[in-house]
Specification:
The complex is a heterodimer.
Chain A: H1 7-33, H2 38-57, H3 63-89, H4 110-124, H5 127-132
Helix pairs in contact in A: 1-2, 1-4, 2-3, 3-4
Chain B: H1 3-25, H2 32-57, H3 65-88, H4 92-116
Classes of the chains: A mainly alpha, B mainly alpha.
């Protein structure tokens, strides 16, 4: 089975979009004012990498890709919950926003919804179940 | 991005999203006319980006020029990518990618409008 189809491809496309958004944000922030909020900007860069990995892994059904997709979506969910909570409790930790600040409110909360949708999709579309019917 | 161009791009993006939503809800793959609409929206967007570049060359200085350039490069990538997904995924899920693409372009137009504004005079740059 070469690639995921249907709804999986839409989810992967949304991940690719957020990879683009987070990469752009990380590049601009790290290039122009890294010293202002290094933790926030590094987190944005990490988020960008995770989105990229998920975007690629969700379009493939190979076992390695599946494990990567599970890992990337899980870390993202943990990241957006941790950073979202921390950014509300101790705003001083993040002088500037990350993609995950306040549970992704700057991005319509999509950063919180996307990993949940990704994990649900992965749970519903296990490759072995697809092949056995 | 000036208010006029922002409105043009946002309305075009929302029209695309609406048209694609009708097709997607009918559980159809994207038709050729929908890809033509997508192309038209991209043309409007590229014209708006061109107007921004002209404005920059004319001496307009936004609060953060790096951020603006990032958005000027990133925004035109969205619809070609959504169209590629729609062409490859011949189901209503591919059409849904065009719905998302149109909505995202409308949001990015609003964002470009914010990013276009000059620095507050007190910033002293």
């Amino acid at each position: 089975m070469p690639a995921a189809h249907g709804s999986g491809r839409l989810i992967a496309a949304l991940y690719a979009l957020f990879a683009l958004a987070a990469t752009g944000r990380a590049v601009v922030q790290i290039a122009t004012r890294f010293s202002e909020a290094p933790l926030a900007y590094l987190l944005t860069a990490i988020a960008a990498i995770l989105y990229l990995v998920a975007a690629w892994a969700l379009t493939s059904t190979s076992p390695v890709a599946r494990r990567l997709a599970w890992t990337a979506c899980s870390i993202e969910l943990a990241g957006v919950l941790c950073v979202g909570t921390l950014s509300l409790l101790t705003p001083a930790l993040f002088p500037d926003d990350t993609v995950w600040s306040r549970y992704g409110s700057g991005y319509g909360y999509v950063p919180s919804v996307l990993p949940v949708v990704g994990l649900i999709w992965l749970a519903l579309h296990r490759p072995q179940e697809l092949s056995t019917g | 991005m000036t208010t006029r161009w922002t409105l043009a791009v946002a309305v075009a993006g929302l029209l695309l999203a609406g048209a694609a939503a009708v097709v997607a809800l009918a559980r159809r793959a994207s038709a050729r006319w929908l890809l033509a609409v997508t192309t038209a929206v991209e043309v409007v967007l590229l014209a708006a980006v061109g107007a921004c570049v002209v404005g920059l060359l004319d001496g307009h200085r936004p609060a953060s020029i790096a951020t603006l350039i990032g958005y000027l490069i990133g925004t035109p990538l969205v619809l070609p990518f959504a169209a590629a997904v729609a062409v490859e995924e011949r189901t209503h899920w591919g059409t849904a990618a065009l719905v998302a693409g149109g909505l995202v372009v409308a949001v990015l137009a609003a964002r470009l409008h914010q990013v276009w504004q000059p620095a507050v005079s007190a910033a002293g740059l």
